[in-house]
Amino acid sequence: MKPTNKPTIAPAKGRLALLTPGMGAVATTLFAGVEAVKRGLAEPIGSVTQMGRIRLGKRNENRSPLIKELVPIAALEDIRFGGWDVFPDDAYASATHAQVLEQDLLDQLKEPLQAIKPMEAVFAPEYVKRLHGTHVKKAPTKRELGEQLRADIRRFMKDNGCDRAVMLWCASTEVYIEPSAVHGDLASFEKGLQDNDPAIAPSMIYAWAALKEGVPFANGAPNLTIDTPALLQLAKEQGVPVMGKDFKTGQTLMKTTIAPMLKARMLGLEGWFSTNILGNRDGEVLDDPGSFKTKEVSKLSVLEHILQPKLYPELYGHFDHKVTIHYYPPRRDNKEGWDAIDIKGWLGYPMQIKVNFQCRDSILAAPVALDIALFIDLAARSGMKGIQEWMSFFFKSPQHAEGLYPEHDLFIQQTKLKNTLRHLAGEELVTHLGLDYYED
Ligand SMILES: NC(=O)c1ccc[n+]([C@@H]2O[C@H](COP(=O)([O-])OP(=O)(O)OC[C@H]3O[C@@H](n4cnc5c(N)ncnc54)[C@H](O)[C@@H]3O)[C@@H](O)[C@H]2O)c1
Predict the structure, then answer these.
(1) pLDDT at position 44, please?
(2) pTM of whole model > 0.90?
(3) For the Myo-inositol-1-phosphate synthase GAPDH-like domain, which residue ranges apply (predicted)?
């Protein structure tokens, strides 16, 4: 395909503030990981922005630069980490508590990690029932809490000499809520902030504050947050990119890899039983039915969208899909997931696939968090605003424009991501047609 019009991209000049509401397992594994990579102590394995290459032009041109050489991605050296948490622990103490990384590595990074001290959180216990934090802001209205967050952002950027910022929600999963009238447009939302409307969750106050400051916002958890007309309106008005929801890491990563294969080969599905054991704080929060419901909705939707039962009723019209997460403290962050998949083949003969993924939750999530932060900063510098569907690759429950269905298939998501990067760089899009290789 012909090169598309190359957008103008502002250079990744100066420092980038990477601000995370939530300084728990994922956030501190991200902070520590970047500090370790900067010091040459480890490799950024799992990060597309750091290790990924992209093919350009024809297959026989042998052009496959690193993605970060094709488009101007912020350098790790230019990132300054900051965050908020309901506990006052600095990033070193929090990472030690999370027990994801070995203490020996954390001790080598003690100085930079101790310097990252959480700002006071905006928190409401009715939204995360299992936590009882003390490091929490107080104000008579949600609007004032939002203004305090805006002041935090400005202060952090000034104190750290940052030119740009991105905000990435790495805090606990809030209870399930459906969009209601207060989320319908910006005027209703801002009135709701003033009136302390109970349907405005803390995550929405962070998102509002970020967008008001012109800061891109991405959501690593499944909470509703910016997936509402009101905050999308604000993102558009402010000319700021946003994306969510929920980092695509363990079981859903496997699911969105296997399900497209079944559909590609027209193999049927009778049922998919998924269960997990997880022993970290996230597991504890998800033990509450309200928070689990948010996660469950996020996890359940993927098969429907990939398999399209309406188009293929004989293959996918009646499958059972169950997802459970059990809080099991001995495993800490080392999540173990099992999938029992009942499929059917030629003439309806049944077969089974079993998956046992012994993963590490935050080891999978940290590079995804880094890529999201760096790509949404790239989007902002490229003048892209509103929902960034091309980043669906990183999300379990990707946001999408009204009237579209979300794209869950990992391979379509990857093609979309790569072609968007080619588009940004003014390179030809790759269609994989390839007939010209066989012309005389
Ligand atoms: N690890 C993964 O693979 C993965 C995948 C997808 C989504 N997620 C989501 O990412 C989020 C972070 O996961 P984690 O393992 O780091 O959890 P965690 O429990 O270790 O960390 C979350 C932190 O957020 C803090 N917090 C809660 N509410 C807050 C608020 N309103 N403001 C500021 N801080 C707040 C908590 O005190 C805690 O320190 C969770 O919502 C989780 O569901 C994680």
Answers:
(1) 98
(2) yes
(3) 250-362
